[in-house]
Amino acid sequence: MPRLKFPLRLLGSDDTGAIAVTFALMLIPLLLAIGAAIDYSRGQQFRSALQQAADSAALAGASAYVNAAAASTATTVANASMTASVTQLPPHTGTVTFTATPSTAVVNGSTGYQMSVTAQGSVSTTVLALLTSSIATSATAEAMNSPIALTVVPPSGTSNASDTNTVYWYVVPADGSLPTLSSSNVVYSNASSWRSSTASTPAAMASQKIGFALVNVTGGNSSYGNNGYNASPGSTHTFYSSVMPPSKYATDNSDRNRETYSSQPKNCSLQVLPVPNPASPPNASSGSCFTSVSDLATPTCAQLGNQTVKYFWNDMGGGGDDYDYNDAVYTVSCKSSGNGTGASGVVLIR
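The structure corresponding to this sequence follows.
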């Protein structure tokens, strides 16, 4: 009997089995915690990608939302952007659903066009599948096409022209056609001295191209007979910055497809140069014509940003064309009406 007591005491004091049971019990919440961390990380990765997709779709839709009539087109653009982005999302379960909604907002007295995009999706779980089969997530984005104030500043004093010149600005039609002058906006005229009609006005959405028209009346300030292109005194001609050459079309709104100076196929009318240093503005080259028109002739305010550009017009008047590019000279810049940070263009506001 004494020999049996010692092994029994050892057996009673052996707790290795209890440790194993305890470890097994602790392993379950540990695995759940690890699984939860993995599933949470996957969920966050998916949500981040979904948010980026919604941001891109909202920006694309707002960029296309340039006026009230474009709401349907802008919605289609936003939906197309989301559809394309869904195929690039991390692995997820089920269908990603989304909605694009256009709206407007008044910003400093002008209408801003907004696009909101909401999206929902879910990620399947692994270890957490014991508790739930998926983790749902969503994203919301809103972008605005900000109203832009277009600022046009002329030189002081009178112009060089014996002709009367009036400067208009217009939104370049999407189909590349020419606007009617009645739908354009008078900015300056040299009938007496350069003066402002609308020096700084909310002009267009940041993504819209802005063009300028120079309406020229031969001998309007001082008659000198026919000009070098045989245009008679009092005849009117319009130069459009959005066509090549700018002198291609006549000013008469009922006859805008008739060539004004068909004998001159080159650009003898317009030079547009950036102004990197306001203290030392650029000068136009004189004495020649060009085979193209600068893309700055029809900029968007988003393209210009905080940059200023300078327009130099030659009205092709006088007894012979002097190609001097000083008959209408002015600078153009843009400023956002929405957030005061310059021509920021289309921006995310949420």
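Residues 16-64 form the longest helix (49 residues).
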